[in-house]
Structures are given as C-alpha cells and as structure tokens.
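Appendix B, Record 12. Input sequence as logged:
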Amino acid sequence: MIAINRLHFQYPGAPFSLDIPEFHVASGEKLAIVGPSGAGKTTLLKLIAGILAPQHGTIHVDSTLLETLSDAARRAFRITRIGFVFQELELLEYLDVLDNILHTYRINPVLKLDAQVRERAAALAQDVGLGSKLKRMPRELSQGERQRVAVCRALLPKPALILADEATGNLDPANKVRILELLFRATEGSDTSLVAVTHDHELLPRFDRVVDFMGFHGAAA
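Logged structural output:
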C-alpha cells in the first residue's frame, strides 16, 4: 500500500528535516507510529497524503507514484483513496455534524453525493454515539465529539488508506476503544490499510506493527 524510498523533506528555512531510507506498509496492515513530539510523525502522514512534497525520494501509495501527479490529480487521489483524520480536526464551525461529515462530497466533483452516502454518514455517526446529534453545531460538541465527527468524515468515502493523527487523543477510555474498533472495522474484509500516530501506548497491542520514531529526528525507518 505504501512504499517510500530515499525520502528527504525539509521545511523552508527550518532546521528540521526528515530522511527516510525505506518505509513500507502492506495492504490491509494496521500500523501504529509512536515517538516524541517534533520527531516528524505528522509530517510523514502529510507526505503520504500528498499534502506535502519531498525534496528528494519517492512515495508510492496504492501503486501510484505521487510525484508524477499534478496538484489537481493528487488532490483527487487523496479525496477518493485516502481518509485523513487530522490532529487539528478541521471542522467547519458553520456546518452541523451531518454536513461536516458530508462536506468532502459537497465540494469535490470526484465524489457523488446521493441517498446511499447520506445513509452511510448517518450510520457512521450512530456507530460513534453521535446519532442523536446530527443537527448540532461544532461549538455545541465536546472535543471528543468533534474528534468523532472528523473520524466519520474520513471514513465516509471508504478509502483504501486511513491516516489517523492522534484520532483517540481527546477521548475517554470507552470512546478510545469505540473509535479504534471503528477504524479497524474499516480495514476488515478489504485491503484497506491503517497508519495511526498515537501517544496512547495502551492501544499498541491492537496493531499489527509499531514503528517508533524515537531517535529518528532527521531519519526514520
């Protein structure tokens, strides 16, 4: 699903750099990434999603070489093939819960919004305990509820790859398990892969593999 080779990335004018000689994630694999803040975990997810572009090296996702795509094609690929749960959540404050979950379908012509998609959005919300709050505005939700909305939005297009940046970070123990089960169910019976950045070491035994970024400031493997 993911193949990275000889990657080098550096933010303009910043001392931080990320060098990854080799990094692979298999189809259907559930991978957790751990490590200290500032080690490059979120940067890696954004590189895999094509939000950032490396200065050197190659990134293949779902057999597609991201560097060969135009900006528009890379955006369309990300929208249809990758579900990204951002650490910042990126909910729109003027949309209610249901419309936030559906938002990607409303603004991108590569996705078709129909009755089946609406039903799936409502079912996902029900799965995470938000079934009775579809008309609530983000300001009326707790941080944990907002996080669950972001997870539903990422899973709605049935992506081939799920990238989760601290998706359980603001949740109580019961809802942590609930969200993790939802993410894992999205990978079952398909080749969908999950790459999750987490600081919650209690969840690590549930993953197929764990990559520790400790000591990889400037390099990761």
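The radius of gyration is 17 Å.
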